[in-house]
Amino acid sequence: MSSSSDALLQALLALNRVQAQELLAQARAEYSPLEVIEILIRPALEELGQLWEGGDCALSQIYMSGRICEELLEELFGEALSDDLPETDGPPRLGIAVLEDYHLLGKQIVRTVLRAAGYRVHDYGRQDVDTLLEQVRADGIEVLLISTLMLPAALRVRTLIERLREVAPGVRVVVGGAPYRFDDQLWREVGADAVGLSAGDILPILERLGVKP
Ligand code: B12
Fold this sequence. Notes:
The chain is α/β, with parallel strands linked by helices and 213 residues long. It is built from ten helices and five strands; from the N terminus they run H-H-H-H-E-H-E-H-E-H-E-H-H-E-H. It has a five-stranded parallel beta sheet, with helices on both faces. The structure holds cobalamin.
């Protein structure tokens, strides 16, 4: 863990939003928004998860840290993160969702990267398998991006993909989120077409799949 992400971790544990904001501003002088996430925000949150697992911090600290980081993301990306951006029609049809999970930050970042690169993307928010299948089929989605942070949700992707192959065989699925980073074969095991270990990975993946903005 770098000293800057450790400083952010300390600010988050102390629920010191002002200090967290200052650290972010310092990092922005040197790095791009995506680099700030990878160097500062994600490592600090992952370490926080370790502390929680070891019984060394309270769930309220994780909860508040998540809220503070959501606000920091808004500062990093501004209105690109907004849910209110108009979506225009026309290919390519990308969909993004969090499956049966309340960890939304990763999805928000991936969606922002896509929009900044000029892709149109339907954001389905948090969904269960049945509802997501229904919507993907109805909207004619061609590439579905799934974000999960809980291992059970990451495993449920297998069910989603099996059923998707039956009702909409042409849809390609890209997965991402912590469980896929911990186990580098998990994406193959659930039957996905590709995995992204960080938000920035999505652009080369789409290029490989031949999907242009
Ligand atoms: C913040 C947090 C929360 C917040 C979430 C706030 C929010 N708005 O998202 C709150 C407080 C709600 C929460 C709740 C819980 N949490 Co929590 N949480 C975390 C924590 C600390 C950080 C997660 C995070 O936001 N990371 C930062 C984001 C930016 O990273 P990311 O999601 O990985 O995304 C990046 C990449 O993976 C990638 N990416 C992500 N998705 C995708 C998709 C595609 C297509 C691509 C290309 C890339 C990509 O891009 C992103 C940027 O690079 C993690 C610790 C950890 N190790 O991750 C635990 C963690 C995920 N939580 C955990 C648990 C257990 C819970 C709870 C069950 C706790 C409880 N007992 O109540 C609940 C249940 C929630 C549920 N049912 O979904 C466990 C999961 C264990 C497991 N393996 O299943 C973890 C790992 C903590 C731990 N070590 O135990 N949590």
